[in-house]
Design brief:
Layout (H helix, E strand, L loop, with lengths): L1 E5 L5 E5 L15 H16 L10 H4 L11 H14 L9 H12 L24 H29 L8 H8 L3 H24 L7 E2 L6 E7 L5 E8 L3 E8 L13 E6 L5 E5 L2 E7 L9 E7 L4 E4 L6 E6 L5 E8 L2 E8 L5 E6 L5 E9 L2 E7 L5 E7 L4 E6 L5 E7 L2 E6 L6 E6 L2 E4 L7 E7 L4 E8 L2 E8 L43 E7 L2 E11 L5 E10 L5 E9 L5 E13 L4 E16 L1 E16 L4 E14 L9 E12 L8 E14 L2 E11 L8 H4 L1 E4 L12 E2 L8 E24 L2 E25 L7 E5 L4 E15 L3 E12 L7 E10 L11
Parallel strand pairs: 38-39
Antiparallel strand pairs: 1-2, 3-26, 4-5, 5-6, 6-7, 8-9, 9-10, 10-11, 12-13, 13-14, 14-15, 16-17, 17-18, 18-19, 20-21, 21-22, 22-23, 24-25, 25-26, 27-28, 28-29, 29-30, 30-31, 31-32, 32-33, 33-34, 34-35, 35-36, 36-37, 37-40, 38-40, 40-41, 41-42, 41-43, 43-44, 44-45
């Protein structure tokens, strides 16, 4: 369940018509399509205006001139959260989960650790992680709206649309008499005061006291106690590592789960619920993150004895499994566009049949067997009520099962009866439904999403919200009396003119979107100068047709380069076309090489989204020092980009093989070039060790042409380089080594130096962390090496494949967020090349790049 809004290359909104699950941050919705579209449309209106000094630049740089698009995340997302709340009868500011988060922050005295800079960071390691700009920005805008109404929104938006970017305090101070940071603390004081009042009211009604189920950190996810009560399987979300399944098995019934050593089972993505078949096997859901182009859940079975996983469904969009008492069937929810359905699978033959089909915008959720022939489930209406229904498999009829709980979620059959969480009091607590009676059995200060029963300890196990996020807690199963917490009141939303809107499904003409609408200028520092570049692109609304164009000028050669590319992915096989004219500069010798390339390629995936292939052809013309070289022939490649896989634990790898065969014909060179690349990263706690090896061989390339056509080294880890090389050898100038055969290896150890996590108010720079990297690079070439030795004339000399050139050194990497949105890394290196005769020795390096500059852990160009 998601949506996005963008202004490049044109204003557009993309909505994924999937209903939110009960664990989503947008779970408490009413009319979900209306809420998500209002949220995204608020972004469009927020980012669109550009006036004053920007007026002439719109005609030069086009649609990229959107000054409001570089406002802080908390401003953009907070405003959209505020609008989604004000213009509907639900929205996140009305959410009980939002109030629960505020209470958790107050209980942990966490608000004092936040400021206007820290709440902008959606990529940080601090709970609530990516929800931070939405949550805190929503509170900021809630306070602003209360004071100035919609006129204040309009005034701020128009002011920012005609001012220089990043100087945001002036307009805000004009409106509220305080800077953005000062007003943030005023808004948080309002939120804190309301949360403290709720906490005091709950404390007066005897809240339960919970104990930790396990030591250590990690966000509590899906969990379930086995039928015998001797095993507990649970999911933990670990920062920077992903989500893992664990099991704890008691040796005897008196042993506490906390005292049992956990065993890691496997890593998974997006697991929402599990259900036991018997004590050695369970069914769970997870997102299929391997299948290309799609992102949905399916059902799997795990056997604790064999430690093997079996896939139960493929492409079923299946989630929330519940196993029948006799272990023969699994009830689950199947997603569809804007709706879902309750389905049943026979575990023996994997056949699936639909039991209940939900209406548009009606969510069915949390199935649980009451008996082998009766299934309970939740049904959420457009008004936001969530009731419990029962479906009889034999009679094929459903009816309301419980009339006391109207905000019910997360059903679980236990020896103590049916457990369910409900937020009818304004706080989500656990309720026990047994013998026709409904009784609260928790009274939390924050909120509880899921619960199960430990029959040996006679306690509830829950994932309770804490100041650090959801954690596994336990407390005795006993009667509670939660107090009603009044929800924050908002004025009634405007009534729509009509609820009947005609929906039309239609195609479109993609080429009508291919006209470039913007130009982005950029500048990059490189060895001895800078590259000035301009880029533009165009694509259709669903990204099946993509066009890109770039041009650049560098101050070293005073030459221009340009390139154009187009890809079409409407068919199972993507078709790509490209043409470029570019300059290669060998910094060591000052040699200038101009080239032209034209390519046609067909590409696709091999089974998973991480394995791909490409087959095509290349035409190339290179103007060397003495002659022009022309080449033409087919090219093929296959690669596995395992470093992008979310299933990686402590080890990940990347592998690639490619070959180009240039064909013999009049005026064209004939030879073949093969390329291989293997890289691996091993995580050692917060440290990483990376190793990569690259190699290229073109044995039939004439030795006299290697300077013009051979592979060469690049001397620093540049985002953009005139050397046009993939072979990294730090400590020597770029282009020192060129060859028809080349072997290159890089070994790197990266260790954390400091978690800075510091901003400077609304100044557009946030310091994330500092890393220290030690490395060793080596290279051997069959070709030439540029010598600067005093006893030799400067120039290229013969180099053979059995001679290695090595460099070593260290880098300090400062990872930051710049301009509120851009992850930028600055690298400060000190390199030493072991062979002075070839430009080695001690040399400093300064580099900059997007999202990290590690030559091993980053994706291969």
């Amino acid at each position: 369940a998601n949506g996005l809004a963008d202004f490049l290359p044109y204003p557009h909104i993309v909505i994924f018509p999937v209903l939110p699950t009960q664990a989503d941050s947008v779970d408490e919705y009413g009319d979900w399509p209306l809420e998500v579209i209002i949220h995204e449309y608020a972004h469009i209106l927020n980012m669109y205006p550009a006036h004053g000094i920007y007026w002439p630049f719109k005609y030069i740089f086009g649609s990229v001139v959107r000054p409001n698009a570089v406002l802080p995340r908390w401003y953009l997302e907070g405003l959209a959260v505020n609008i989604e709340t004000r213009y509907t009868d639900h929205g996140r500011l009305r959410s009980m989960d939002t109030d629960a988060t505020a209470r958790a922050y107050v209980l942990g005295d966490k608000f004092r650790t936040e400021d206007i800079a820290s709440v902008n960071e959606a990529e940080g390691k601090k709970w609530p992680y990516g929800s931070r700009p939405y949550l805190f920005g929503g509170w900021w805008w809630d306070e602003a709206h209360k004071r100035k109404g919609t006129e204040g929104i309009y005034t701020l938006n128009q002011n920012f649309s005609r001012r220089l970017p990043f100087f945001i305090n002036g307009p805000i101070k004009e409106q509220f008499g305080a800077t953005a940071g000062e007003f943030f603390h005023q808004a948080i004081n309002t939120v804190s005061t309301r949360a403290r009042g709720q906490i005091e009211a709950i404390k007066a009604s005897a809240p339960h006291t919970s104990a930790d189920v396990m030591d250590g950190s990690g966000d509590a996810g899906a969990f379930a106690v086995s039928p015998s009560g001797m095993k507990l399987v649970y999911w933990l979300g670990l920062i920077d590592k992903g989500s893992f399944a664990f099991v704890r098995e008691r040796e005897n019934a008196t042993q506490s789960f906390k005292d049992v050593k956990a065993k890691k089972l496997f890593r998974s993505v997006g697991t929402y619920r599990l259900s036991w078949i018997h004590d050695d096997s369970f069914v769970f859901d997870q997102i299929d993150a391997r299948t290309p182009h799609y992102n949905y859940r399916d059902l799997f079975r795990y056997d604790l004895k064999t430690e093997k996983t079996e896939r139960l469904t493929t492409g079923a969009r299946a989630q929330e499994p519940a196993v029948s008492p006799n272990g023969q069937h699994v009830a689950f929810i199947q997603n569809d566009g804007g709706k879902n359905r309750l389905s049943l699978m026979n575990l023996s033959d994997k056949t699936i049949r639909v039991l209940v089909s939900g209406n548009l915008n009606q969510r069915l959720a949390s199935p649980e067997f009451l008996s082998d022939t009766e299934i309970l489930f939740n049904g959420r209406s457009k008004k936001g009520d969530e009731k419990i229904y029962v479906y009889n498999i034999t009679t094929k009829k459903r009816q309301l099962w419980n009339t006391q709980l109207l905000s019910a979620q997360s059903l679980r059959r236990t020896p103590a009866g049916i457990l369910v969480t409900d937020a009818g009091t304004g706080v989500r607590n656990v309720y026990q439904v047994s013998g026709g009676q409904t009784q609260a059995v928790s009274n939390t200060l924050t909120g509880i999403q899921f619960a199960d029963y430990d029959p040996h300890a006679k306690t509830l196990i829950v994932n309770e919200l804490t100041p650090d996020g959801p954690r596994f807690k336990s407390f005795p199963l006993q009667k509670s009396t939660p107090v009603k917490i009044e929800k924050t009141e908002y004025e009634a939303a405007l009534a729509p003119d009509t609820e009947k809107i005609k929906i039309r499904e239609a195609g479109f003409w993609p080429l009508s979107y291919m006209m470039p609408r913007y130009l982005i200028p950029m500048i990059y520092p490189v060895e001895g100068g800078v590259i000035i570049q301009g880029v533009t692109s165009a694509r259709d609304p669903i990204g099946r047709n993509v066009f890109g164009l770039s041009g650049s000028f560098d101050s070293i050669t005073n030459k221009t380069s340009y390139g154009v590319g187009y890809s079409n992915s409407s068919l199972p096989t993507t078709i790509g076309l490209g043409y470029s004219r570019f300059v290669t500069y060998l910094g060591a010798s000052g040699r200038l090489i101009e080239s032209q390339d034209a390519s046609l390629a067909f590409s696709g995936n091999l089974g998973t989204r991480y394995t791909s292939w490409s087959l095509g052809g290349l035409w190339s013309q290179t103007d060397g020092r003495f002659t022009t070289h022309r080449r033409l022939g087919p090219a093929a490649s296959v690669q596995y980009s395992g470093m992008q896989s979310p299933y990686n634990d402590r080890w990940s790898w990347h592998g690639e093989l490619a070959h180009q065969q240039f064909l013999e014909q009049d005026g064209y060179l004939a030879y073949g070039r093969s390329y291989a690349h293997v890289a691996s990263v091993v995580g050692l706690g917060r440290h990483k060790v990376g190793l990569q090896v690259r190699g290229a061989v073109a044995p039939d390339l004439p030795l006299g042409y290697v300077i013009d056509l051979g592979d060469r080294n690049v001397g620093g880890n540049y985002l953009v380089s005139l050397a046009n090389s993939q072979f990294l050898l730090r400590g020597y100038p770029s282009g020192t080594f060129v060859g028809r055969e080349i072997i290159n290896a890089n070994l790197e150890w990266v260790m954390p130096a400091s978690d800075l996590t510091r901003g400077f108010g609304t100044f557009p720079l946030f310091l994330r962390n500092l890393e220290l990297a030690l490395f060793a690079d080596t290279m051997a070439v069959d070709g030439a090496a540029y010598s600067i030795s005093n006893d030799k004339t400067k120039g290229y000399y013969r180099s053979r494949i059995d001679e290695f050139y090595t460099g070593a050194g260290g880098e300090i990497r400062l990872n930051t967020s710049v301009a509120y949105h851009v992850p930028l890394s600055f690298t400060f290196g000190l390199y030493y090349g072991l062979k002075d005769d070839y430009g080695g020795g001690l040399a400093p390096f300064v580099g900059v790049g997007l999202g990290g500059l590690s030559p091993i852990s980053k994706k291969t160009p």
